[in-house]
Specification:
Leucine Rich repeats (2 copies); 13-stranded mixed β-sheet; LRR_dom_sf; about 15% strand; 4-stranded parallel β-sheet; 17 helices; alpha/beta
Length: about 525
């Protein structure tokens, strides 16, 4: 019985194994057949291009170009924030002294508009028995103990009234002897008595004297000429007639470096004055307007003197023509040159000579916005010549921008703070070049014509503080929002009085940016 059961089990196992082999063989066969069948191709995937991608790509390319243009100059761009923080007059401890000086009815004039920090003496007054009594002497005398606590030399700035109804300054100037470190005094719209001028001679540390729109005559001039230690002297005599002999006494000041003089001399005496001035070899900065001066007088001034130290020269009469332009090589260290505008040919020749011999120029001014402008090929060549002055900070040459691409040479000037082109508009194309000027601080433009596609460029105008707009009608709410992305922008102004309205700009939007000042020139 057992044997029969064993036989049956064996037969069943063999049968099951056979069935399994058949199933495996069948599956393999089917797979093999399936491998030989053609595979149907999958449908192609269709991608829909985002229309914003090309615009984003363009913006990234522009930003990369801006970055590439700035990298070589990053080390050359001054860190203005750090330098301001280190100024001694901003020390918080000094503010306590300022408050004490202010309590004596004097004012602290912080450095701005090219002026240094000054103690500003206006017209302190009080009412005595119903009458106004000026107290210049009393106020200044009370403030001197506090002024002497300041940790730096000071300048006293007397500012009178435009009608000069304030009293003469005499005894008040004598009070200045109590200031221990008084190096500079300035007078604006003041009446100064002979007693006051005599007192100036008694200030042993006085090296800087400036007298503008104030009483000056030959007696005053003789006192001034005795302040032998003067290094900076700015005088404006207005229409007061002064003899050349008296004016020439100023040229005997052997320490004089910065000399600015506005005076009326007889025509026959002008050449004599310039001839003697050619011997002033210590001059570093010069601006003299003493009457009609010829090109030959200025040529002789250069030819017969030693002007190695001269770094700044403002010429008031005429633009240097060929002979004088060639002679500028005798002042080889000029860094600042300001001259009137002339014909396109005269301006072109002067630029060519300067680009060859005065590549160290930092400030170049030829004329103002009026008069003839360089156009077309001459304008393009002038813009190209600017790249010959790697230290250029300010340039004002009458130019009509021939095309946007002509701005490219200016992108090579890492220190450029301001330039002028008559028909410069702020649009997508110009912004691309302006964004490559890392030190730009101010702009003079005709109109605004950019929109949202320029939003990525405006923040790159990272040091621009002021924009002057000829056509304020182009300033609208949306453009103001975009302009506000410029990190240092603090002022929007316009000088076209005929179109001084901004109808497209609402007070509501302006209120969002209280740090931006809106101004019209002359108001």
């Amino acid at each position: 019985m057992f044997r029969q059961l064993t036989f049956v089990a064996t037969v069943l196992l063999i049968a099951m194994a056979g069935i399994g082999c058949f199933l495996l063989t069948s599956d393999s066969t089917q797979n093999a057949v399936a491998d030989k069948q053609p595979v149907a191709p999958e449908p192609e995937l269709k991608f829909q291009t985002d229309p914003r991608v090309p615009e984003r790509t363009r913006r990234l390319e522009e930003i990369n170009q801006i970055l590439a243009s700035r990298v070589p100059h990053i080390s050359a761009v001054p860190n203005t924030t750090d330098s301001r923080e280190k100024e001694s007059w901003q020390d918080p401890e000094v503010e306590r002294i300022y408050q004490q000086i202010r309590s004596q009815r004097l004012t602290i004039w912080y450095p701005r508009n090219g002026e240094p920090l000054s103690i500003w003496v206006g017209n302190p007054e009080k009412m005595v028995e119903g009458e106004k009594v000026y107290q210049h002497t009393q106020a200044l005398k009370a403030a001197i103990p506090y002024i002497n606590q300041l940790p730096f030399p000071v300048r006293i700035w007397f500012y009178g009234t435009r009608d000069q109804s304030n009293p003469e300054l005499g005894k008040c100037i004598e009070t200045l002897t109590g200031i221990e470190e008084l190096h500079s005094v300035k007078f604006s719209y003041c009446r100064i008595s002979p007693r006051g001028y005599a007192a100036l001679r008694g200030l042993p540390q006085l090296t800087d004297l400036e007298i503008l729109h104030s009483h000056l005559d030959e007696t005053a001039l003789k006192h001034i000429a005795q302040i032998k230690q003067l290094r900076r002297l700015h005088l404006s005599f207005g229409d007061e007639k002064i003899s050349a002999a008296a004016a020439e006494e100023l040229l005997d000041l052997s320490e004089l470096e910065d000399f600015k003089l506005q005076i009326r001399l007889e025509t026959k005496e002008v050449g004599r004055f310039w001839k003697k001035m050619s011997g002033c070899s210590s001059l570093v900065s010069l601006e003299v307007d003493c009457g009609k001066v010829s090109q030959d007088m200025m040529y002789q001034f250069l030819k017969h003197g030693d002007h190695q130290r001269l770094k700044s020269w403002t010429i008031r009469e005429r633009i240097p023509r060929k002979k004088l332009a060639d002679a500028l090589v005798l002042a080889p260290n000029l860094e600042v040159l300001k001259v009137p505008s002339g014909s396109p040919e005269e301006m072109e020749y002067l630029l060519q000579r300067l680009a060859k011999h005065h590549t160290q120029l930092r400030n170049l001014t030829i004329g103002w916005d009026s008069g003839e402008h360089l156009k077309g090929k001459q304008a393009r060549q002038a813009l190209q010549l600017f790249s010959a002055f790697p230290q250029l900070q300010q340039v004002h040459v009458p130019i009509v921008l021939p095309d946007v691409n002509a701005l490219e040479p200016l992108t090579r000037l890492s220190q450029l703070e301001h330039f002028y082109c008559k028909n410069l508009n702020l649009n997508q194309s110009t912004l691309f070049y302006l964004a490559q000027m890392p030190s730009l601080k101010s702009l003079s433009i005709r109109s605004l014509s950019f929109s949202d596609e320029s939003a990525h460029l405006l923040p790159w105008l990272s040091h621009v503080e002021s924009i002057e707009i000829e056509n304020p009608q182009t300033l609208c709410n949306r453009r103001l929002v975009l302009l506000a992305t410029m990190p240092e922008l603090r002022e929007l102004k316009w000088c076209n009085i005929a179109t001084n309205k901004t109808d497209n700009l609402t007070d509501e939007v302006k209120a969002r940016y209280p740090f931006i000042k809106y101004s019209v020139c002359g108001k």
